[in-house]
Amino acid sequence: MGRSTRLFLVVLLLAGAGGGWFWYKEREAAAPALAAARSGGGTPPVAVSTEPVRRGALPIEITANGLVVPEAVVTVRPRVDGQIEQVLVEEGQMVEKGDPLFILDSRLNQAILAQQEAQLARDRALLQRYQSDLVRYQSLRGEGYTAQQRFEQAQADAASAAAVVRADEALASQTRLSIEFASIRAEMTGRLGALPLRPGNFVRQAENVGMATITRMDPILVQFSVPERWLGEIRAAMATPGEGPVVRAMPAESDSAPVEGRLVFVDSAVDTQTGTVALKARFANDPVRLWPGQFVRVTLIPRTEPDAIAVPSAALQVGQRGRYVFVMQNNQARRRPIELVRMSGDRAVVRGELAEGDRVIVEGAQRVADGARVVERSGGTPPPAQRVSMATPQ
């Protein structure tokens, strides 16, 4: 082995010893950080969003799907036979009670009325003559048997003539009514439906054909069903003096404020197949926002709970032991078991170890565990001061 070879081996040994020393020192310096990481002390806190627990008066809200139904629908039918001369309205038009809708041909009835009035005038003249005879024979009734007989005959003739006059008057009144029925009018205020018949069509009373429909739009009803478990609350609310409990209805496609009405009907029996009870609420509908046949979202408020604990519904978590929420305390997440009572809009009414003002974790609760470090989210990312970096051995 030459001198140069020995020199190269010495340099190689010195370089290996130096590298080992530097690796040992770097590992020794990183040991505390590794130990802290294994114990959890170096885990970065989870960024979360919180909202406070609220306590106070909160209405009980029972939600359901409802169907808008009119209070009344009238089918317009002819009451006399005749040909349609005029249609005075348009399809879908709002009409008031008493407005004319159709005009039927009444010339035949007018001719019959003229004949009956002439007959009535003749019979009234006969009645007047018979009444005069009655007065004349009444003065002679004590002058013998013949006079008495003539008096009784005159009395019968006068009574018969009076009956004939009354019959004529009744026939004339009937014909006048038929002429009046030839002008078909609205029986209530509402909106017209389709008009299947036009001028020239002949209608008959016996055929019972509908000429139009009138739907009452204001007020209007919404019918819906709620689970049987709410029946006690609803009955208690209906028994309270005054108007019925408040009901709010919102059309499914609308984003405006809901329409507010009152509960007016509770069905007399629970549907055994569905376990629900049918209800109806009445709403003022001017301007028209609820349309018959429309589906709506219904919220019934039977009463207001005076002291309710409410948390955002997004804070609720479900585990093997039931529902719970995470409360942020001293930058740590603490698990609190709770019992869900009911939902009220976007908040949940609960029972549990919660106090007013406690901050429950709403966003980020799925990423934390009991005792984990958390930090309030600011702008969607944790602040830089909360970030922790650890050196790893090279």
TrEMBL record:
From the Swiss-Prot or TrEMBL record, state where the protein is found: Cell membrane
**Where is the stretch described as Disordered?**
375-394
Q: Where is the Multidrug resistance protein MdtA-like beta-barrel domain?
A: 219-300
Where mainly located?
A: membrane
According to the entry, every stretch annotated as the YknX-like C-terminal permuted SH3-like domain falls at 308-374
Record-linked InterPro entries: MdtA-like_b-barrel, MdtA-like_BSH, RND_pump_MFP, YknX-like_C
> Can you tell me which residues the record assigns to a coiled coil?
none
Q: What is this protein called?
A: Efflux RND transporter periplasmic adaptor subunit
The organism's taxonomic lineage, starting at the top: Bacteria, Pseudomonadati, Pseudomonadota, Alphaproteobacteria, Acetobacterales
